[in-house]
Fold this sequence. Notes:
Blueprint: E1 4-9, E2 13-20, E3 23-24, E4 28-31, H1 38-47, E5 56-61, E6 65-66, E7 69-71, E8 78-80, H2 81-88, E9 92-97, H3 98-105, E10 114-117, E11 128-133, E12 137-143, E13 148-152, H4 164-177, H5 188-199, H6 211-220, H7 224-248, E14 254-256, H8 265-270, H9 273-278, H10 284-288, E15 292-295, H11 301-316
Parallel strand pairs: 1-5, 5-9, 11-14, 14-15
Antiparallel strand pairs: 1-2, 2-3, 2-4, 6-7, 7-8, 10-15, 11-12, 12-13
Amino acid sequence: MSGCLLADIGGTKARFAVLRDSQLGVVETLATRDYANATDAIHDFLGRRRDERFDSAVIAGAGPVRDGRCTLTNASWVLDGGELAKTLGLRTARVVNDLEALAWAAPEFAASDVITIGRGQEEPSAPIALIAPGTGLGMACFVPADGRAMASEGGHATLASGTDDEAAVVKLLQRRYGHVSAERVLSGGGLVNLHDALVDRQEAQPPSPSPEQIVRAAIDGQSETARRALDMFCALLGSVAGSAALTFAARGGVLIAGGIAPRIVDYLRKSDFRERFESKGRLRDYLARIPTRIVIRPDPTFLGLVALARAGDRASA
């Protein structure tokens, strides 16, 4: 097949690789904030690969896609397939939602790519839900029976609290944001929001810790507030994942990806994650039969991007 540029572009990191002759090249990660736009980042990536040639691109963006155009939710970049194709001299440049691209990877995952938490057994050909807490909160669905993926902006749906403590946190966050979506707590910034809400920070207090610092302090037992924040993160992740399973009828399982969950697998196992996943009243038995798995494969979205590139190549043949 012809060479194809693949990209997974999020609010924090932009990852690039070239697919040639069915072989995926090395994935290079750049910081989104270091570039004014996608074109500058692509030129920088290609500048170190002057021998690479390609005539198409498949680009996943962390934001809603309409008419081949994506404005990143958590960064200033705008990805426009037509403009990128013209600027880079490509035959075609396809822009898709990043979770839609990840959804195309769902049937490609090997047993070693995921870690199962809790019970359950997937039903063949049933929908698979995907949730990815990272810089933002992505959500999508893959339907094996139809061979199609569906993007979603479910991460921006209104967050529902399940305990008095969570209700108090939501109330505090409403003062700051007005609308409190699931992404406001289930993301890197969301983990900081949880931590800050639990201490109800005032202006005179020290700067907030980073998400990495919160996770480290919680796991190492260095901070009770960090532990409470991470506990609440895990519980809310289970609750939102359970809601996604119901929304998509995801009897094929729920996959948790993104930059946070793979780093806290052991913590998730001991947390209320799975209990809250199943805790949906009359539908508890329904959810108890659905498996939840953490995606630990590095750069998993590229599996989906490869699948999309191959499908595009077959369509143009």
